[in-house]
Amino acid sequence: MVSIKDIAKKAGVSISTVSYALNGSSKVTDETRSKILAIAKELNYVPNAAARSLKKRESRIIGVFLTDFKGDVYGDLLDGMKEVCNAQGYDLIVCSGKQAHRMLPERMIDGAIILDHAFTNAELLKYAERNHKIVVLDRELEHPNINQVLLDNKAGATLATEFLVEQGHKKIYIVTGPDDSFDSIQRMKAVKMVADRTEDVEWIEIPGDFKKSGGERAAERVIGEYTGPAAVFCLNDEMAIGFCNRLAETDYRIGEHVHLIGFDNIELTSYMQPRLATINYSKRKWGALASEQLIKILSGEEVEHERIYVTLIKGESVGKSARQVNVAR
Amino acid sequence: MVSIKDIAKKAGVSISTVSYALNGSSKVTDETRSKILAIAKELNYVPNAAARSLKKRESRIIGVFLTDFKGDVYGDLLDGMKEVCNAQGYDLIVCSGKQAHRMLPERMIDGAIILDHAFTNAELLKYAERNHKIVVLDRELEHPNINQVLLDNKAGATLATEFLVEQGHKKIYIVTGPDDSFDSIQRMKAVKMVADRTEDVEWIEIPGDFKKSGGERAAERVIGEYTGPAAVFCLNDEMAIGFCNRLAETDYRIGEHVHLIGFDNIELTSYMQPRLATINYSKRKWGALASEQLIKILSGEEVEHERIYVTLIKGESVGKSARQVNVAR
DNA sequence: TTGTAGGCGTTATCAC
DNA sequence: GTGATAACGCCTACAA
């Protein structure tokens, strides 16, 4: 490995002069600088990240932690993060799995963005307490070194639920996510609030898993007990897709016999026939904001928690209730 | 930051004793070891990755480089990589974008797995020449420090093409990937070889992009010049999905008017109606093998290039040509 | 403008 | 078994 020492030797100067030259310090002659740079290039010199991190006590790397590498939501989210990171001179690395957690306490990364329930609150608070900087996207957690950038789950679930009610549906299924999912819990809370203030509607909860398979199982249940038009709110799009696919094998039609709405507006939904109604938000912006907030904390700035707003996308997968249509006639 | 020096002071021993104790050396009393470990825990000691990397000249981290974070192929692939890495005491980080390339020469990672055309061959050879270890999944590149783990693109494309021919189709469209994609070029070569030895078939190439939008555009073209049943080989599944979705807006039916086959067998295809015919291979195995090979090179082992084998999945998206059915009657 | 020297946190080679 | 001590490659007062 070629180090500044080798350059110094070859250039006949001291290592500090080399360091100054390489770092663009003004306290070095243009002449010596260019000589040093030439030699550095000639020797294929590349600075050693470990040595620099050790000395400067920062790595200029931000880590984002995901539960797994699957999942359609992540593409734009990560792109948004990377864009902001790179613009600010940081690199972004994506990690997954318990083993990788060490990167934060061992200071391989300067800060972490968390979207992974494999991190417990206790663990995150422990790191925060030791002065590591963290942004959480998947929970509420209060600490001076932790910033929250959360989706407005309640608003989204409220929009979706009210939409179904407004369309006149009287039997509404809710397909939930995993029990420990913050998103699922939040969305469910909002659904219940709407349910509490709505009369004449039958509410049925089906436990799901935020995966396609959960949507398929839900579809089977809905088909099994079908008595007339029903509405279904899958708490994420992935389950809605599974639901659709299972239903496509039957004679029931989405938007006619079964009215379906999802949550997330993942890319694929725009390709579905009929277009899936869902809750939209900018994944890119979410990621970008998360990175921004983290970098601000890293620079010692004070930041407030942030919220990502959502909108309703009306798709043909939800039509007016037949009953209501009859009434209108 | 608490270092071994702090532990040494508190335990009344030297830093070398602490280091030995922490690293499980046998040359330290059980008594002193347990005392040291207790103090380490008490002080919340965490080793510093940069210092260790600097000294040991390795980071125990492997980096995988992707063109972008989207793409349905990546989930299982990355999981396969991670599994092997973790089992061997390495961590896996996912990187994207030109800025992140520096991680390799700066020795932040011990080796790289490349699936990203933002790396030029020249760049990779330069790194290999400087003794960095690399596994490539997306090109042929010969160097002692570079190992190839490539998909058997030619076999896959041959299987797909021959399947269409066997089913009696006489007008076959090929929707390609980007010009600079190794996969696209390889697959296309195989198609041409089949075409050269097949008579009475009209071959039509449509330039695509490996994305859904490319499939949609292709569908429009096929619809526009429709005169009778046609077969389409989309060189990846993502385009096939775009193709299907566009066609779903018309009265043409997949498997009847248009016969469609893809490549990759991404998860979603199994949910499609009708089931998409495609070329299958184990993404998890591909990733696992890539990691294995890289770790072997890192340990100084000699390795041969590897190949990932593929199989044909017959789906209802490809039926017999109507013409042939007539002949058979 | 350049050089000297100390230190970042670890590991590893010596002595004792 | 334990303790000095010298690296690893880089940065940065401070001195010259």
CATH class call of the largest domain in chain A: Alpha Beta
Task: Quickly count the domains of chain A.
Answer: 3
Can you say what the CATH homologous superfamily of the largest domain in chain A is? Answer: Response regulator
Which structural class should the secondary elements of chain A be placed in? Answer: alpha/beta
CATH topology of the largest domain in chain A: Rossmann fold
Oligomeric status: homodimer
Pattern of helices and strands of chain A: HHHHEHEEHEEHEHEHEHEEHEEH
Task: Determine the number of helices of chain A (DSSP H or I, runs of at least 4 residues).
Answer: 12
| Biggest interface | A-B, 54 and 54 residues
List the uncertain runs of chain A. 324-329
Residue share in β-strands of chain A: 15-25%
| Average pLDDT level of chain A | 94
> Care to count the β-strands of chain A?
12
Description:
Chains A, B: One of its GO terms (molecular function) is transcription cis-regulatory region binding. Chains A, B: Residues 2-56 form the HTH lacI-type domain. Chains A, B: Keywords: DNA-binding, Repressor, Transcription, Transcription regulation. Two copies of one chain form a homodimer. Chain A is α/β, with parallel strands linked by helices. Chain A has helices at 4-11, 15-22, 30-42, 49-56, 74-87, 121-129, 153-166, 182-196, 212-224, 237-248, 283-298, 322-328, and strands at 61-66, 91-96, 111-115, 133-136, 146-151, 171-175, 202-206, 230-234, 258-261, 278-280, 306-308, 311-313. In chain A, the strands form three sheets. In chain A, strands 2-1-3-4-5-11 form a six-stranded parallel sheet, with helices on both faces. Chain A has a four-stranded parallel sheet with strand order 7-6-8-9, with helices on both faces. Chain A has a two-stranded antiparallel ribbon with strand order 10-12. The N and C termini of chain A lie far apart (82 Å). In chain A, 48% of the residues are buried. Chains A and B meet through helix 4, helix 5, strand 2 and helix 10 of A and helix 4, helix 5, strand 2 and helix 10 of B.
